[in-house]
């Protein structure tokens, strides 16, 4: 059943097929996306959920994200279905089960390893992917796998606007000519504690903002693969991972994340500040995916 925009044209062009989508991963963002889809029964249809082994268990939570290259499609197991899942029949037993449900698009919200491990199979089956673990592109081996799979197709990789929402602006500026891109990401110290930042700055003795890393987007994403997806998206849209400058800051005065984007382009300077965003609060990344899915299903897409 088409979305609202599709209903407007039904008398002239016939019903638009309802977009079928699936989730790879069912953590916080995955649940937000599932809830958003369930709230729009006339919009894209969620047809399957596949999650990592260990998700929902104490061991899986303690282990956190797996490292790049350590997860294959065979390591994925059925989703731990909870009352938050719109339908109990959504859990997939394996990647083949997900493919058999014929989704038009799969949203990856699991890990860099899950993205790299499943993209070749899904894209070869003609299924488009929306990746959220963009730090996978920072690893040369992972980037090579993803680009090769996308080149072979027929499925495509569609990068959402994410938490920053400036990818379209940067892509347009890059087409006109970009001279430089600088991205600053600031978090409260608590967010950085379980990352390499804990060895780079004394997070317990900060009385103001401290920059503890300056370097390329590729170097930043490889050091902080679970925190730099926004910076990786900025780099992919603009000058690339090696030419995009990233600065990371620990700021005890912030209630949540803050992003700053500065770029010099032939079209003029670009300046964008987002946040500080409350934590917890609405997740722009999840909403950017919902907007992308809605756009793919709509008669008039933005």
Automatic annotation (TrEMBL):
Transmembrane segments: none annotated. GO terms for biological process: NAD+ biosynthetic process. It comes from the Bacteria. It holds the Pfam family NAD_binding_3. InterPro entries: Asp/hSer_DH_NAD-bd (IPR005106), Asp_DH (IPR002811), NAD(P)-bd_dom_sf (IPR036291). Residues 207-282 form the Aspartate dehydrogenase domain. One of its GO terms (molecular function) is aspartate dehydrogenase [NAD(P)+] activity. Residues 25-160 form the Aspartate/homoserine dehydrogenase NAD-binding domain. Belongs to the L-aspartate dehydrogenase family. PANTHER family: ASPARTATE DEHYDROGENASE DOMAIN-CONTAINING PROTEIN, L-ASPARTATE DEHYDROGENASE-RELATED. This is Uncharacterized protein. It comes from Prosthecodimorpha hirschii.
